[in-house]
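FIELD: query
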Amino acid sequence: MAQHPGRTRRGSATIVALTLSVSAACERDPSLSESPPRVTFHDAGPAPSTSAPAVASAVAKVIGSLRERSLDIGTRELPAESIALGGDRFIHLGAKELSIRDLRKGKTLVTVPVQEPRRVLSLRDGTTLALCAGKTLLLSKRKHELSELRRIPLFTQSVVIPDLHVERRFWVVHAFDAALYGYEINDDGSLEILEPRQVADYDRRLFAPLKDGSFLHTTKEGIARIFLGGRRQNAKLDTANVFRLLPAQRLDRVWIGRQDGRVELVQQPGAPAKTFTTLDLPGVFDLASSARGLAALVVEQQGAKRSFSVRRYAEDGRLLWQDSLPFELDAPTGDDWVARVARNRGITVSPDGGWVAVGGPDAAVVWDKQGKRVLQE
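FIELD: result
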């Protein structure tokens, strides 16, 4: 169960023809595949003045530049896994430690060492949960008391979501199983495992909690709203390229994010179909919602290079502010280039919409409601 903070949906790789010759002695395979670049030297008489390492470096720079400009980044497969916002607190689950920072006071409240971190989330009452490979860490909101709970099984595609209705309850959804696995923190701090809830017609793609305790999920024919008591409402909708379902301020509305950049605020199942807001966000990578609207992370072209654009929208579609973050190009020729670029680029927003954060296990940036950076680590 290795951690994969930068998992993304990757579109078809751009095929680029590239011929690089140095003193008529060097030739590279013209297809940009996932394998490392292959350089072949031919006997062409006297040795060229350019050394093999210099040629390899030149090839690497060209390939890195091409990937930076044109390789399809796709959309993030899972919501942010290493960062969370609860009230005025920013929670960061790094590779070696869990930290909680009071954003309004500008000070670190807790730093706890961790091993093999997996997911972090803030529950409705402000309790922090850090799920690791061997155990689960629980930190109370007021006194920041730390306790250890049993290990919660997680897999590569597992999604952990807080219950928006019951304060100390959360759910795990596994990609291989059409069921909700519930957990609840008791008053004595112990972890209670709830009876699994099988979900009819769930296509094992997207699940989202709502504030009244119901849930939205994708089906083969659209989306459904289910209640734990058994009631369900269905709506026909084309969800072939939907990568996010997100709750909106009003209970009867939901944000739908599509891989082609079309983001809509629509009526939930159980009411006449209606679209309230439509955003056109080509290059959309990740989305998060709050009571005040939507936060988006978009891959944006700027001349010959690309960067991530961080944007905050009101529910009526107005752009409130935006900022930019660079690509992380530490390994431009590696097979895992996209994963590295996306590793620290998950987006989340506080429930009241006052804070926006983008980050992953190695780095994070936090903005206030005016779009001012208040934290960068």
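FIELD: remark
The two ends are 27 Å apart (CA to CA).
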